[in-house]
Amino acid sequence: MITLSLEILLISILAGIVGSVLGLGGGIIVTPALTLLFGVSIEHAIGASIISVIATSSGSAIAYIRDRITNMRVGMFLEIATTIGAITGAFIGGIIAPDLLYIIFGLLLIYSAFNMIKKKSEGAAGEVSMSPAAKKLRLEGSYYDKAIKQDVPYHAGNVYGGFSVMYGAGIVSGLLGIGSGSFKVLAMDVFMKLPLKVSTATSNFMMGVTGAASAGVYLLRGDIDPHIAGPVALGVLAGATIGAQIMQRLKSKTIRLLFIPVLVYVAVQMIWEGVGLTK
Questions:
Q1: In the chain, which ranges are continuous DSSP H helix?
Q2: Would you write out the chain's pLDDT as a tens digit for each of its 279 residues?
Q3: How far apart, in whole angstroms, are the C-alpha atoms of residue 214 and residue 222?
Q4: Which helix (H) or strand (E) covers residue 264, if one does?
């Protein structure tokens, strides 16, 4: 049992680092690792994954908020779309075929991955037209980029596009019970034209709010095993703290190169599930 806990701890540290750097919460590594490597049931793996999301957010939020990389106004605004979408997903569960949604959103992720490949720069504030909605909601800010050693001012564009993507992500989460970290990042980076570091940091913040709201449900169901969730939480928390420091010293182009293959992987998995190849 001690050896198993130690192995889970080490895997979780890696998951925390990746989740913190890319804004994905760590669940993309924790869930398959627990089920495939350690033979943990999918229910307990998902329960531990929820804990990993909260731990990733907690571990990186302090550093990101302290250094003013997280845009909390953007995060809370988009959280409205996710929440409404999740409620919608719960209501339309018996109307829309989940398989079709898997395919649609898988294709959307692939489309977004190609857009990220074509995107050669962060886009300075002057290159992004500020929409009236962004101006009214004050969705702008600046942060000090430690990699290029200069302040980076920015503002949001295409607020309605980003809000729509987050609403769709909420529907998928509520209907299929999957995480939406990749959708959060692409909504801010591809659609709202925010700097990738801001998108990653804000995604981490948002997932902590979402994870905390749903953790109680998993706990009441008995899906959170403390023998599994304990080392996952400790490992991911440590990894996320390390990842927050690593992310700030990476160039945005490097983060983008790391994020794109993960995005394609998630897209392929969704399409694979949608066409019934895993059934």
A1: 2-22, 27-32, 42-66, 72-91, 98-118, 132-137, 159-176, 181-186, 196-221, 226-249, 252-274
A2: 678 888 899 999 998 898 888 877 667 778 778 888 888 887 788 788 888 888 878 778 788 888 889 999 999 999 898 888 877 876 775 676 667 777 877 787 787 777 777 665 444 444 566 778 888 888 889 998 988 888 999 988 889 989 998 888 777 766 655 556 777 888 888 888 899 899 988 988 887 776 776 677 778 878 788 888 889 989 988 998 898 889 888 888 888 888 888 878 878 877 887 787 555
A3: 13
A4: helix 252-274
Question: Phi-psi category of 25—alpha, beta or left, where left has phi over 0 and alpha has psi -120 to 50?
Answer: left
* Interatomic CA distance for residues 171 and 193, integer angstroms: 23
Q: Which position has the token pair 């074509």?
A: 118
| Whole-angstrom distance, CA of residue 116 vs CA of residue 113 | 5
Q: Which of 65, 108, 68, 37 lies closest to 208, judged by CA?
A: 65
Q: 39, 47 in Cβ contact below 8 A?
A: no
